[in-house]
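Q: Hi! First time doing this. I have a protein sequence and I read that you can turn it into a structure. Is that right? Here it is:
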Amino acid sequence: YLSSSVRITGLVLMSVALFLITLSTVFVAWNSSHLVIRASQPEFVYASHFGALVMTFSIFAISFDESYGWTKSMLDAACMATPWLVSLGYIIIYCAIFSKLWRIDQVLHFHHRKVKVRHVLGPFAFFVLAAVVLLSLWT
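A: Yes, that's right. Below is the predicted 3D structure, encoded as structure tokens:
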């Protein structure tokens, strides 16, 4: 059971997080031509923002209980959505950082070859797919 004050606090903090994620995304998009933003590989910054967004929505899914008039099946779905959202959000953030660092490593090792984002998306896709498979088996 969650008291109303705890639920409201969680939802307010979730709203603050969503606002900051949106603000950060707009900042990166607005300043996309700036050298520092381009050097930070904005594709992976956007991916990490998306992962944070997914993870933040888990607060909403976990904020309900029987006192809000939800049926057992609705609560079961919200309960299972929480680990999905947390896990996928985390793996997306982790893979974005990993892919970004791997791309930097590839650039430093192969000076004469241009390393594009698509060259490092393999591990990103593999880990996200592995997480979806594991979560599906668990569900």
